[in-house]
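> forwarded from #structure-qc
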């Protein structure tokens, strides 16, 4: 069976997004600092069609995280837009423009039904209303035998972690404090639900902690 691989950037005080998230500021106040290390990388820029960028200790970590991925699962908040039912007159299409960086099927957890959204580059967003297990099963069926990546946000990650469904977890620990916002491990208990630390990579302005199931 394909693995569910979770990756996310987190502050030293445990937040994956800052306070006061909004459409204009989706990562919340200070949340952009969690991803500065990635935005500078050539391998990350290539996903957005950009040339140039750095190659450093983070490069093989990111390359590994992208390898053998056939589908993505994410929460409604990560997909973004307004809360509640979708606006039929002006439907939200995500943060990423007409050619999102996924280039494979993406399954969005939501309480509100919506027809699939097909965009350029091979990305189709399917909106799943019947829970985390259904979303994961649909994603696995769409991968062609490859793995599924769990992209966040915090609430979706908490549900999959608490259910013991995460096979691998990559925490990109950024040396900054946000003070408040969305904590990754809020409400998931006092253990890692079968995950053990298997690798640590110290890189420029980030430390990569990889966990895997025993």
């Amino acid at each position: 069976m394909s693995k569910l691989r979770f990756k996310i950037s987190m502050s030293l005080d445990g937040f994956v997004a800052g306070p006061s998230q909004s459409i204009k500021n989706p990562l919340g106040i200070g949340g952009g600092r969690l991803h500065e290390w990635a935005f500078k990388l050539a391998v990350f820029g290539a996903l957005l069609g950009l040339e140039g960028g750095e190659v450093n200790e983070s490069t093989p970590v990111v390359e590994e995280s992208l390898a053998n991925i056939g589908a993505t699962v994410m929460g409604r908040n990560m997909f973004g837009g307004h809360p509640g039912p979708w606006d039929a007159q002006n439907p939200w299409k995500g943060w990423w423009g007409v050619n999102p960086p996924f280039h494979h099927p993406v399954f969005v957890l939501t309480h509100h039904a919506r027809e699939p959204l097909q965009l350029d580059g091979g990305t189709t967003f399917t909106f799943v209303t019947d829970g985390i297990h259904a979303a994961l099963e649909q994603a696995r069926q769409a991968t062609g035998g490859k793995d599924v990546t769990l992209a966040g946000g915090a609430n979706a990650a908490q549900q999959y972690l608490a259910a013991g469904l995460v096979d691998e977890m990559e925490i990109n620990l950024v040396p900054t404090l946000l003070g408040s916002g969305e904590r990754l491990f809020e409400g998931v208990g006092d253990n890692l639900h079968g995950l053990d630390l298997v690798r640590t990579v110290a890189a420029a302005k980030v430390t990569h902690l990889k966990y895997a199931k025993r």
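QC bot note: The domain at 4-20+27-84+99-213 is CATH 3.40.430.10 (Dihydrofolate Reductase, subunit A). The chain has one domain: 4-20+27-84+99-213.
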